Amino acid sequence: MTTPCLYSIVRYSPYPETEEFANVGVVICAPKENYFDFMMANRNDSRVRRFFHDDCIFPLAKDTFFRELGFAKNTAIEISGAQSLSQFFHYFTAKRESIFHFSQARVVLTNNPKEEMKKIYDRYVNHSDYTKARREEVLAKELKLSIDRIDALKNMYRNQTINGTLSKFSMPLVAKRNDIISRAIKPLAFEQSEPGKMMEHGDTWVMRVTRAAEEKLLEVKDVLFTIEEPTSPSSAQIRVLDSIKLNLDKHKIAHIPASDHRSAIEFASNIIVDRSKH
What is the rounded distance in angstroms from the CA atom of residue 216 to the CA atom of residue 67? Predict the structure, then answer.
């Protein structure tokens, strides 16, 4: 049986004058079920740190706000009546002058408020695929700028779709000679909070490259992955990253840290040497 839930997205805005904010949590309330709960991003959330260059404000402020949310949850449990709980939710999430504030309350129908909260959190806070994709785009653009500073390589590397019978995917930095791929570089950002999703992302790209190699669309030796790791990885994330790198080594796919532009440019520049041999 479905029940209406109120929910609001927690927004973090440390510099109000810029009007920029990051979604960092969700508060949900099912008045008829006397349910009130919340989820918040980790205090060392890498997305928040990169977005605001924030190494100290969020961890401290988050702890204080987390206690405020806990107090609200305990208060809500003592409230009887759907209307009263609904009014409390609207009062708590009303517009406030703070580095943490709430989106306008929204309504969703669900038969499981707790699961719905997790779905909303994944959609608005985690959005790991979106964040990962955007971060990888930024890394690719930064690397392309570095490569294009070399006159002999300027505009040589472009986004290309690799299209075969079983393979179809795009890579942002591909150089071709006589319509044959000479070099292909792909940044990989492992910002996913769940180690399993990190592994899935790595496995996906290993599969794409090896399958494309089987179809003779490229050669594995001509592919380079630049890897950006989480800012403060957990022990589980470190183990997964080690496993991903071992898998790349197993398939003889080159990989380097995303920050190592010098090695990436050296790899990209080898196309000039290869051309001189033909």
Answer: 57
pLDDT one-digit tens code per residue, 112-149: 999 999 999 988 887 655 566 678 888 999 899 999 98
Number of Cβ within 10 Å of residue 80's Cβ equals: 8
In order of their start, the domains of the chain are 3-126 (no CATH), 129-276 (3.40.1350)
Tokens in use for 176?
């071709």
Judge if pTM exceeds 0.70.
Answer: no
55-73 pLDDT, tens per residue?
Answer: 578 888 888 999 999 999 9
Task: In whole angstroms, give the CA distance from residue 21 to residue 11.
Answer: 6
Q: What is the mean pLDDT of residues 245-271?
A: 93
DSSP-based three-state secondary structure for 95: coil
Residue 255 has pLDDT above 50, yes or no: yes
Contact partners, residue 238, CB within 8 Å, separation at least 6: none
pLDDT of residue 103: 93
Give the Å distances, CA to CA, from 81 to 15, 34, 78, 105.
38, 8, 10, 19
Q: How many residues does the chain have?
A: 278
Q: How far is C-alpha 117 from the geometric centre of its chain's CA atoms?
A: 19
Other CB atoms within 10 Å distance of the CB of residue 223: 27
The answer for residues whose C-beta is within 8 angstroms of residue 44's C-beta and 6 or more apart is 59, 231, 232
Q: Which residues pair with 163 in a beta bridge?
A: 168
Q: How many C-beta atoms surround the C-beta of residue 103 within 10 A?
A: 16
Q: pLDDT-derived band of residue 228, with 50, 70 and 90 as boundaries? A: very high
In Å, how far are 150, 223, 262, 265 from 154, measured between CA atoms?
Answer: 6, 19, 16, 12
| CA atoms of 227 and 213, how far apart (whole Å) | 21
